Amino acid sequence: ITSFTTGSTFSTNFRSMGSIQVPSYGPQWVSSAASVYAGAGGSGSHISVSRSTSFQGGMWAGDLAAGMARGLAGMGGIQNEKETMQSPNDRLASYLDRVRSLESENRKLESKIREHLEKKGPQVRDWSYYFKTIEDLRAQIFANTVDNACIVLQIDNACLAADDFRVKYETELAMFQSVESDIHRLYKVIDDTNVTQLQLETEIEKNHKEEVKGLQAQIASSGLTVEVDAPKSQDLAKIMADRQAQYDELARKNREELDKYWSQQIGESTTVVTTQSSKVTAAEMTLTELRRTVQSLEIDLDSIRNTKISLENSLREVEARYALQMERLNGILLHLESELAQTQAEGQRQAQEYEALLNIKIATYHRLLEDGEDFSLGDALDSSNSMQTIQKTTTHRIVDGKVVSETNDTEVLRH
């Protein structure tokens, strides 16, 4: 809470003695006092500024009027008022010269006041450096946001590629399992074929032996010797041996054909399995690399997000701090503008009072010139002792840089 109290006292001394006098507005004394109080912990502060300015103007008495007053006082009365009013043109000229000199002094004082206000007035700080810093931070945040978007896009592309490789891997794995199952079935068929071949060979040998034994038994049981003049019969054992050789050759050929066929099938299946295994291995390696890339990109994304969050927090803190400073400075500026407006109004009021007093003195001068015989020394002395004092007190109450209340007290004192 900030409180400003400004007090101003203006005094005007009006003297009228036989000739026209003008008030002097030269500053006689200026005093100011200031006190600052801050509460514990910085929870509140109270600033009180008090200024008291007193301006006293006195009527300038001409040498001719002073001599006339002393002469009249010494003689005890006015003997010849017409003699005291001689040379009115000279006195009017001196009065106008005095007015011009006072106006010149007034202009000089106004120029000095203006220069003082320009030097000691409120200064507008240059915030361009901080604006440049804020713009740089915003540019960094924008660049980080763009990089973040690019990284997110790369992560999405990597995820899509990983999904494609996963689908390809699953497809190749299913094909590999299917081929492997076919190979196992073919191995089983080969085993079954070998078993069947062995069974057939065993049965052929068994049947051959049984037929040979049956024929030998028949020959032995008959006991007959028949000699026929006929061509020599064929040897049954040789025939059986030839048949057995033929069957063996046929079985060997079938076995070789089966071995060749299944060897070819197994070779092709092995080639396919090897190719698929190499593809699966490459896909697994690619998938592992993509997973590592995704993990590294996720780590980079987290770090960039944290950096972005910290920069945003810093930007918000800077903006809040500068907003508070700007609000405080705006409050001080408004207060100074109000004081400047009051000072200007006070100056205008003093100028109006000065003009009014000048008009009064001119009217008094004309009255003295026209009705000189009605003027007495007692009236001049009474009017010379009259002094008017105007005291004005202005109190401003400022909370958080804003003017919340304003109090004006004006008091007119006569002496």
Automatic annotation (TrEMBL):
GO terms for biological process: intermediate filament cytoskeleton organization. Residues 81-376 form the IF rod domain. The lineage of its organism: Eukaryota, Metazoa, Chordata, Craniata, Vertebrata. It comes from the Eukaryota. SMART domains: Filament. One of its GO terms (molecular function) is structural molecule activity. This is IF rod domain-containing protein. It comes from Aotus nancymaae (Ma's night monkey). Residues 92-119, 280-346 form a coiled coil. Keywords: Coiled coil, Intermediate filament, Keratin, Phosphoprotein. GO terms for cellular component: keratin filament.
